[in-house]
Amino acid sequence: MSTARRRLATKPLDPVRTSRRSPPNSGRRLTQHKGRWLFLLPSFLLLGGFVVVPLMLGIILAFFQWNGLGSATFVGLANFVAAISDPKFWHSVAITLWYVFGTTLGCNVLGLSLALALFTKFRGWKIFRTLFYLSGVMPIVATGITWGLIFNPGDGLLNAFLGAIGLRQFEGLWLANPHLALPLIIFVGIWIGVGLPMILFSAGLMRISPALLEAADLDGAFGVKRVWYVILPLLKPVMIVTTLMLIISSIQVFATVWVMTGGGPGYATYVLGIYLYNTAFEYNRFGYANAMSVIVAVVAGASMMVAMKFARIAEPG
Amino acid sequence: MSKGMSLQQRATRLTLIGALTIWAIISVGPIFWVYYSSFKSNSQIVANVWALPHPWVWTNWITVLTSAVNSVPFLTNILNTLIIGIPAVTVVILVGSLAGFALARFRFGGAQAFQLFLLVLLPVPQFAVMVPVWSYMHTLGLTNSRVGLFLVYAAFNLALAITLMRGFFSNFPSDILEAALLDGCTEWYAFWRVVVPLSVGPMITVGILTFGSVWNEFLFAVSLIQDPSKMTVQPALAALSAGATGQLTFGWAQQFSALAITTVIPLILFLLFQNRIFRAVTLQVQE
Predict the structure, then answer these.
(1) Number of Cβ within a 10 Å radius of residue B243
(2) Domains detected in chain B
(3) What is the ipTM of this complex?
(4) What CATH number was assigned to the domain covering residues A80-314?
(5) A265 upstream amide cis, omega within 30 of 0
(6) What is the pLDDT of residues B71-127, one digit of tens each?
(7) CB distance from A93 to chain B under 8 Å?
């Protein structure tokens, strides 16, 4: 292959493609390709040694009874059978799904609203964008503790504030109220997560051609109408992406619950992460915890892969 | 600017800015509250939990950093995170760049399988790998060990780094690389001498994102390390408070100070590298 043609290439050139087309006797090329495996070796070692092997060990241990200290006893499918008939497991699945649903919906709606508001480009909109993103910058543990202090039924900020402005009758137990605990934790999840969809919706809005919006204006589509009939359909691909990302990130919920309620009151906020942690590290049932981990990992991974596949088909282009 | 506006438009605009201001207060207010409360004394906080400090107390941060809270000073926990995090970030940047470059530039058998593997890792919740990882690290004798946590952090932050670097390298100007290869460099040499110096920007982005995730990491840290002297920042912070009951194991002022200190590093990183982070986030989505 000539140098001239190589220069003409507009797409980033793949050196391999080059070498494939070059005559097999080009020895210089061969020496250049020596050591290619070195590029991937460190990744294989790290991912293999500390991701793949642990996961395989987890799958194996799922068939054993193990208290984390002594030797493990093979129990076949008993752990899986136990998980499927464990009401606590299904309860924590349900709580987790409620959290995922609430957080994903809330972040999408609020993120889109904020992005639309910022899109009017009023003076100082960039400052507002930074302010809105800040809530996601605070470490999650710190966020949980802070909101725990705000919603503290004793002398928390919210009750103190309500008392000070003469609304003492609205003071509540907040996180200690079994009906409010999960909604409040979802609210904190939205507070943490809203920045990302806001940024993505903003970027999506910037890509809509101004001419199109002007045309819509002339056709009498402005305000809410314009958002509903013109902007939302154009933002659909972005919304698919934010929804997938929000599901993936919100299903991780662990630290906020840990520091805010510990899963309570009762089992009102007993998310899967907390149940898995307790099963392993409080009750020392490592085999059972591994079995539940395998179920969760496989179901979550597989359903998200399917969702991503559908999303890619749904996305034009 | 507002000359051509009708009354109705002006009213809409005012409502809009009003609504935005309310969310801005909800969004930043709690952070602001944590910071000014960290400059109040315990008795000031108990007297009025939302008032500004009067007088300002400047010693809380130092107290919480230096005096033993959970049997070790909070500074030890911060140092632990740095001892684990800085090497982890370095490894993630280098290893991630190498693999990202290979995936973007070389064609080799199994490349697709490797990328699929990285993609499959993404939606698996971290708590679902917590127990398997603990079981494995326990078998290797690497629980309660900073080396163990470093290895876990390096491995679990790699997928994102590879994805981001691959995205960057597939747009890397070919003629520069070609010129280096034509001069007779090996690909390995060209990578270190030509590609790396031109890729400092994206490497910094990967570094910031990775450091942010290590600094915030709680799940692996709390499951793998029990020894307070080896504990990292977030579990130590969680141990400072006993959760919703509000039964603080430590004074209010120190509690707020620990929160403020933990938040200060991500806050500074974000304010410094805002645009870089926004760009990386937007790019990541296109993958």
Answers:
(1) 21
(2) 7-58 (no CATH), 68-240 (1.10.3720.10)
(3) 0.88
(4) 1.10.3720.10
(5) yes
(6) 788 899 999 999 999 999 999 999 999 999 988 888 777 788 888 888 888 788 888
(7) no
